[in-house]
Amino acid sequence: MNIHEYQAKALFEKYGVPVPKGAPAKTHEEFVTALAQLPEGPTMVKSQIHAGGRGKGTFTNGFKGGVKFCKTKAEARDIAAKMLGNTLVTVQTGPAGRKVQTVYFTTASDIKKEYYLAILLDRASSRPVIVASTEGGMEIEKVAHETPEKIFKVLVDPAYGLADFQVRQLIAGLGLNAAEAKGAAKLIRNLYGMFWETDAAMIEVNPLITTPSGEVLALDAKVSFDSNALFRHPGISALRDLNEEDPKEIEASKFNLSYIALDGNIACLVNGAGLAMSTMDIIKHYGGNPANFLDVGGGATKEQVVAAFKIILGDANVKGIFVNIFGGIMDCNVIATGIVEAVREVGLKLPLVVRLEGNNVAAGKATLGSSGLTIVSGDTMADAAQKIVKLVA
Amino acid sequence: MAILITPETKILVQGITGDFGGRHARLSLDYGTKVVAGVTPGKGGQVFEHEQHRVPIFNSVHEAVAATRATVSVVFVPPPFAGDAILEGVDAGLDLVVAITEGIPVRDMIRVKRAIAGSKTRLLGPNCPGVVTPGTGPQSTGGCRIGIAPGYIHRKGHVGVVSRSGTLTYEAVYQLTTRNIGQSTCVGIGGDPVNGTSHLDVIRMFNADPETHGIILIGEIGGNAEVEAARWIKTNVRKPVAGFIAGATAPAGRRMGHAGAIVGGAEDTAAAKIAVFKECGIEVAATPSDMADALLRAAKAKGITLG
Questions:
Q1: What is the mean pLDDT of chain A?
Q2: Is it the case that residue B53 has pLDDT exceeding 90?
Q3: Is the confidence at residue B201, as pLDDT, over 90?
Q4: Which of A132, A332, B80, B299 has the smallest number of Cβ neighbours within 10 A?
């Protein structure tokens, strides 16, 4: 689960990670109260959406830049008015963009130098890894590719936690002076404490900055949490912003369906994540384009199948449906009955290809065959995929 | 032989009194698997009954092991308690713990993995379909089925299958069985980013197993486990190997169902992994329908008969 920068920075403050003074606002009235909390002088205005690339983004009303430097608070208020309620398009949002529902004002900092700091899971070692770099404010993937020697990593042993010598290694790598080192050590320790205690999936600070007066501050904050651990963090669960999520994905999650919208026109309904991914792949292999990833899970019910049909048909681009079920334990006839019911309930007009295999498959195929509906049967995944691609073309 | 388990292996079920655990304990008993104990804290002394079977339930894994000599556990415990259930099995000195539970917090698994390092216990999973060593009876009964895989699609034979995904494993097994090619052992290592047993661990076991004559390696986007396995295969494995990678069409940065299936960098895309497979002499299945045929091509090239 992702959260906004202003929410992440509130958590940073709670865990003792220094950030520039800031205040969020969700309405024009709140601009005044938010700005009143900041000192007079240079102020940043930052659009709060979950996607990156905000600074270089463009609003659909033509206004350029989702993050702006302002010389005064009065100017910040005018700029915020141009952002709030408008749609920001960045390299990460796709052409539809995201509506800015919150702006975040922060005191503009004097920057001596920018750095990069992140904490995430290192899959190879199954340990948390802290990644630091002297190249802040840039895309870390680019730094890793072009100048890997400028990236420093320490793996944290979960039995002992972050060791002092590891903090010193990171600080030495960043080349901080003695005055900065003290603040940086505290910041890194506290940030790791937050990562561990909150079940964060990733914390990224880009940039981390030093100031001419020797302060070390997190200038930006990108934080996501392990969705499987939210049950033990009700305060963090409350930070979820449904405006940032696809309504179809929210609806799917209510039925325990795993759904992700894509930009093709062949909808898929599959049991199992691996098979669902491969179903998208095989559609592409035969020249089609998948409209979604949809995993109904191992123990799908009729209700789930009906809900799944409604969700995939909510996508106007869909021109055909491919149902691919390997019912190992699950009864194929239950699925077939669900499909027939769903087709009748939604009055499906689009081509539908069903590939059923596994437990009680003969009864399942008979149910489909005797339904009087136009359902094309596929014998294998390959056969079914070729049929739906042809029907949609 | 086979790997990890044999039809003689005695297993206990942690969470046998839950709907899910109970249902699959019954299916394993039907398959002929020696399910000798159940564990549910607070329900010790009760009995899990299924047809002629009477499986005693214990309060702890230690008690169950002392009374029944079970050596393998399968975990169906809900996510908040599953990490603890795994540790209990490790502490009781089991040979193998198979964690089926989906949705265990990553932090719990980081701690579990650290805690079990150096112990004698192997962990399979979590978020995995389990492991099947097919038997010689009708529809492969008489074998050992641990977890949630459909037993009846298997057939006893000489192909080892390893995968992160349940349904893709079944797809591969079904393709093999319908071509009259049996399996030695089919292993699901699970779809989570932190898991106990890697593709490479299983490949090493298949390579050392004289009963395994060919291998199907099924992977997906995310992480570098498949690449690590492929490089080892290149230098160490002479048996025919076929591979498939799911997720070629997955958009970057989105989690595709499995918590581990997310493309992070250029290295963990399907295309990158497929390129490494080819470079390492693994016959790549063009589509998931091609997995068994890909293995047959690899076997034919080496002059090996698998049927």
A1: 93
A2: yes
A3: yes
A4: B80
- Hey, is B45 helix, strand or coil? coil
A314, A307 in Cβ contact below 8 A? no
Whether the domain at B10-124 and the domain at B155-301 fall into the same CATH topology = yes
Contact call for B106 and A228, based on CB within 8 A: yes
Over residues A1-50, the pLDDT tens digits come to 999 999 999 999 999 999 999 999 999 999 999 999 999 999 999 999 99
Residue B175 vs residues A68, A354, B117, B164: alpha-carbon distances, Å: 58, 18, 36, 18
Provide CB contacts within 8 A for A78, sequence distance 6+: none
C-alpha dist (Å) from residue B70 to B14, B29, B37, B130 = 12, 15, 8, 17
Say how many residues make up chain A: 393
Tell me how crowded residue B185 is: count the other CB atoms within 10 A of its CB: 27
Q: Taking a C-beta distance cutoff of 8 angstroms, is the pair B121, B89 a contact?
A: yes
Domain boundaries, chain B: 10-124, 155-301
Collapse the DSSP code of B300 into the 3-class scheme (helix H, G, I; strand E, B; otherwise coil) and give the result.
Answer: helix
Task: Provide the pLDDT confidence category of residue B262 given band limits of 50, 70 and 90.
Answer: low
CB contact B271 to A (< 8 Å): no
Question: Smallest Cα–Cα separation from A174: which of A261, A105, A113, A111?
Answer: A113
Summarize pLDDT for B132-163 with one digit per residue, the tens.
999 999 999 999 999 999 999 999 999 999 99
Q: What is the topology classification, in CATH, of domain B155-301?
A: Rossmann fold (3.40.50)
Does B153 touch chain A if contact means CB atoms closer than 8 Å? yes
Q: How many angstroms separate the CA of residue A359 from the nearest CA in chain B? A: 8
- Contact criterion met (CB < 8 Å) for A326 and B174: yes
- CA of A180 vs chain B CAs: smallest distance (Å): 31
CB contact under 8 A, B270 and A123: no
**CA atoms B268, B271, B272, B276: torsion sign:** positive
CA dihedral of residues A256, A261, A266, A270 (deg, nearest 10): -20
Q: What is the dotted CATH code of the domain comprising B10-124? A: 3.40.50.720
Instruction: Name A50's Cβ contacts closer than 8 Å, sequence gap at least 6.
Output: A2, A4, A98, A241, A244
DSSP, collapsed to helix, strand or coil, labels residue A202 as strand
Between chains, do A295 and B288 touch, taking CB under 8 Å as contact?
Answer: no
Other C-beta atoms closer than 10 Å to the C-beta of B56 total 18
Inform me whether the C-beta atom of residue B109 falls under 8 Å from chain A C-beta atoms: yes
With tokens 């502490």, the residue in question is B91
A378: left (phi over 0), alpha (psi -120 to 50) or beta: beta
d(CA B18, CA B178): 34
Q: DSSP per residue over A22-54, as a string? A: EEEESSHHHHHHHHHTS-SS-EEEEE--SSS--
Gap between the Cα atoms of A111 and A217, Å rounded = 10
Cβ burial, residue B150 (10 Å; 0-12/13-18/19+):
buried
User: Of A212, A225, A206, A162, nearest to A188 (Cα)?
Assistant: A162
CB atoms within 10 A of CB B128: 30
Q: Is residue A142 less than 8 Å (CB to CB) from chain B? A: no
Among residues B271, B266, B175, B267, which one has the least CA distance to residue B216?
A: B175
pTM of structure? 0.92
Residue B257's pLDDT band (boundaries 50, 70, 90)? Answer: low
156-195 in chain A: CB under 8 A from chain B:
157-159
The two structure tokens encoding residue A267: 């909808």
Q: Of the candidates A290, A321, A50, A325, which has an alpha carbon nearest to the alpha carbon of residue B251?
A: A290
Give me the count of residues in chain B.
307
| Owner of token pair 């290809």 | A353
The nearest CA of chain A is from the CA of B27 a distance in Å of 9
